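W.,

You were right to be curious about this one. When I first looked at the sequence I had no strong expectations either way, so I just let the prediction run and decided to look at it fresh. Below is the sequence, 99 residues in total, followed by the output.
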Amino acid sequence: MMTHLIAFIAGCVFIALWQTLRQKPSSTPVARLPAEDRVTSDDELEASILAYISINRVHHINDLCQALEHPKGARYVRGFFHKLMEQGKIRYRDMVYTI
């Protein structure tokens, strides 16, 4: 019984160390739009979405929604983003959104 407990604790320590060493800090800064550059029309929103994707590496839509800070909210930006994907202007390949 004691041997099983020691092996379990050693395994937990090993996995914890492995997880902390495996994590890489994000070295690329994320570009944010200034507050005065917030978009209001759909054409400007499309341009800002495409510009953000071309500049940054986007793995999740929430990253884009937080960076744009649209006055109509993240749900509107997410819906517009999906519309652009349906039109074929944005692709999702290798877990990264591209133009």
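Here's what jumped out at me. The longest strand covers residues 91-93. And, maybe more interesting for your project: Helices lie at 2-22, 42-55, 61-68, 74-87.

Coffee later to discuss?

I.
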